[in-house]
Amino acid sequence: MKVRIDITSAIFRNRKTADARANFTAMQQAAARYGFELGMQLHNSADDAEVKLARSLQTPLSFHAPVGNPWNINLAAADASTAWEELQDNAERMRDCQATMAVFHAFIMTDKPIPAFGRGRSYMECMQRAFRPELSFDGSDCHCGNFFALPEYRLRQQRLKERLAELRQRYPDLTFCVENDFPTFGAGNLLADQLNFLEHPVCLDTSHLWCTAGLFELDYHREIEKFLAGQRVQMVHLHASSYPRHTPRTLWWDGHLPLRTPNEMDLPRIVAACRQYRVAYFVLEISDATVEDIDYLAEMWQHAASGKDTR
């Protein structure tokens, strides 16, 4: 089973270009020692300069859509015309880069157009337009509540499922995975049952799910197992979250930290489960990723079958 690892293009943001190139080359060499293929995922907040730098590395690319577009992709909105335009543009960009894999967030509980963050716009600034207090936990100005039994949710979920089927028909040469969302601002794809219902390829984000499990008081590793058992996971966004299991609801936030960051997620158990289900495509969505992350992932992967503790 060939392991593919992509590094996020966001590694260019915290280092000078020469340092970032040297860091990526070192990770490439480390991956090669383990027999892994190393590529890069163009982040959805990348600007033109970041895309140009990534392409100059002449390494395999994947996309976190929408790359280079002004709006979020919401296929659950009543009018999806803008979403289809963004997807068409990214399909053309992917073919130009000889990339065949992409991931995107597909479901927001709104019909409002939501700007894509990055390129001078913050996540909170853009996503605040989707805020609906009736869909949030009491006292939270962004975190999702349990709105999944609402007729509106079921209507949007079915609409999304139908449009994803159309997406597969439109682009049979490309794979657009749907990612489990970070649980804020009415995001609709949070849990394994919800994404399995869509019958569409999935990107499993480990820290998004860690936050979701904390907010909804779920068994994190049982949810991981349900995602993988659904046989839809084709890509894993692997990163650490420093938030402890019993963080108060209003204080939860995201991860995107190096894999050795102290955490309660039990990353070796996640990697072992991926190996068991033959999922071997990992994206290190870590802006300051280094060789140490490659080494630790290789250690976890190699020890997965033996059951040895790599923490």
Write a structural description:
An 8-stranded parallel barrel has the order 1-2-3-4-5-6-7-8, surrounded by 4 helices. α1 (17-33) runs parallel beside α10 (291-303), α6 (192-198) runs parallel beside α8 (220-229) and α9 (267-276) crosses α10. The chain is globular, with a radius of gyration of 18 Å. The longest helix is centred in the middle third of the chain and has 20 residues, at 151-170. The protein has helices at 17-33, 48-56, 81-96, 123-127, 151-170, 192-198, 206-216, 220-229, 267-276, 291-303; strands spanning 4-8, 37-42, 61-64, 101-104, 175-179, 202-205, 233-237, 281-284. The mean pLDDT is 95. The chain is of the alpha/beta class. 38% of the residues lie in helices and 12% in strands.
Compact description:
The protein is α/β, with parallel strands linked by helices. The protein has helices spanning 17-33, 48-56, 81-96, 123-127, 151-170, 192-198, 206-216, 220-229, 267-276, 291-303, and strands at 4-8, 37-42, 61-64, 101-104, 175-179, 202-205, 233-237, 281-284.
**Terminal residue distance:** 23 Å
Q: Pick out the low-confidence regions.
A: none
Number of helices: 10
- The largest beta-sheet arranges its strands as 1-2-3-4-5-6-7-8
Kindly state the number of beta strands.
8
Largest sheet: 8 strands, parallel, barrel
